[in-house]
Amino acid sequence: MENIKLNIEKTLEFISKDKLAAYAPKVKACMETLEKGTGLGNDFLGWLHLPSSITQEHLADLKATAQVLRENCDVVIVAGIGGSYLGARAVIEAMSNSFLWLQEKKAGQPTIIFAGHNIGEDYLYELTSFLKDKKFGVINISKSGTTTETALAFRLLKKQCEEQRGKEMARKVIVAVTDAKKGAARVTADKEGYKSFIIPDNVGGRFSVLTPVGLLPIAVAGIDIDQLVAGACKMEEVCANPNMEENPAALYAATRNELYQNGKKIEILVNFQPKLHYFMEWWKQLYGESEGKDHKGIYPSSVDFSTDLHSMGQWIQEGERTIFETVVSVETPNHELHVPSDEENLDGLNFLAGKRVDEVNKMAELGTQLAHVDGGVPNMRVSVPVLNEYYLGQLIYFFEKACGISGYLLEINPFNQPGVEAYKKNMFALLNKPGYEEASKAIRERLKK
Ligand SMILES: O=P(O)(O)OC[C@H]1O[C@H](O)[C@H](O)[C@@H](O)[C@@H]1O
């Protein structure tokens, strides 16, 4: 079977080939540091060999739990934020029919809704209203078990589920994915007797999609987690190659770092398939939280093409030349649709008649690549043979491994996120959270000025 492929050719008129080749020993050293666990953040390396360590028993347990939810719920709310949200959403959106939510319900195929990733009062009001006459269940996902957004949504959902479905059924259709011992989500799950899954200590949120954090909701959505894991396993093998030229994760890490050294401070991840929108959101957290430290790091952004060619296209073509693009390109769509011919040809589109829609999309992709490279934007391409679970698993591991290597090339700790706490401290102080008395006083003084 084929693998995903990285093509960096269209970056080579912007960076020196020799300089890029000089990364080989550095990249090799970073990979050894990851393997030996001797680098910064080495207590968070559980993702490195996660795919190959997943057992059939574990997958069976996840699938059995998913089945309980599928059989007993018309709607399943997946509550989580950041790493406890984006991976599941990325895979579910990529693998689901875009209009599933508008289609007539099939028994045993619950609608998946996400919550706990914002504090929008209207969002939560509308969600709880929608759920009023629904047989719903909840997957409560939080590594720390204390994240405000998720805890707040879960408090509302737990109460409503118990009131609507009774305590006994609620116990059956509420599942927790959290730490083995710590945090409010663990305490609640143990006290209520919920089925629960553990997020390993040594796997950080943004690297956790192949733990129950991602695998359980993905299985509930009816998506093949065996294939997802199989694809990740394959990439674990491919990306272990010490030869940079043969290792896509190593080559990607080296290329983006060399671009960064040449003033390309912003990476734009691009798709030409709207189903990949949330995959890009997942990628942004992975790279943003991993690399944005010590006042360094490429700023990860994303666009959906061709949609955003009609909005952001101008900036990319002619704005400040501090950007490069990485295109995730799906080679063959899962469905075929041909452009019909039209006798009157009022829209002038008969030159496309008989062509597959994807041929038009591919020419948009090629035309965009040429135009952007001409405009001074280096362009990499990650080719994906087809959008399925297996290749999504490959993509996930490829980007994770590259992120670890890239972070070490940048000489930062890619596995922590201390900066995320700053806003939380202020928010808790402003909300008078117990334990924040001093900070509350100080922040109020500051606001008076
Ligand atoms: O899983 P949780 O502990 O609820 O954390 C959810 C997310 O929020 C935090 O603030 C971090 O920035 C993320 O890295 C994390 O994935």
Topology:
Elements: E1 5-7, H1 17-21, H2 23-36, H3 50-53, H4 56-72, E2 75-79, H5 86-95, E3 111-115, H6 121-130, E4 136-142, H7 148-173, E5 174-178, H8 184-192, E6 195-198, H9 212-220, H10 225-238, H11 248-261, E7 266-271, H12 277-291, E8 299-304, H13 313-318, E9 323-332, H14 357-374, E10 379-386, H15 389-409, H16 421-430, H17 437-448
Parallel strand pairs: 2-3, 2-4, 4-5, 5-6, 7-8, 7-9, 9-10
Antiparallel strand pairs: 1-10
Helix pairs in contact: 2-11, 2-15, 4-9, 5-9, 5-12, 10-15, 11-15, 12-15, 16-17
Bound molecules: 6-O-phosphono-alpha-D-glucopyranose.
Structure at a glance:
The protein contains 17 helices and ten strands.
- SSE order: EHHHHEHEHEHEHEHHHEHEHEHEHHH
Give the cofactors and ligands: 6-O-phosphono-alpha-D-glucopyranose
CATH superfamily of the largest domain: Glucose-6-phosphate isomerase like protein, domain 1
Q: Enumerate the spans where pLDDT stays under 50 for 5 or more consecutive residues.
A: none
C-alpha termini separation:
65 Å
Secondary-structure-based class equals alpha/beta
**How many discrete structural domains?**
3
Q: In terms of quaternary structure, what is this?
A: single chain
Mean pLDDT rating: 97
The fold-level CATH name of the largest domain is Rossmann fold
Q: Mind telling me the C-alpha Rg?
A: 23 Å
Strand order of the largest sheet: 1-10-9-7-8
State the major sheet.
Answer: 5 strands, mixed
| CATH hierarchy: architecture of the largest domain | 3-Layer(aba) Sandwich
Shape: globular
Beta-strand content estimate? 5-15%
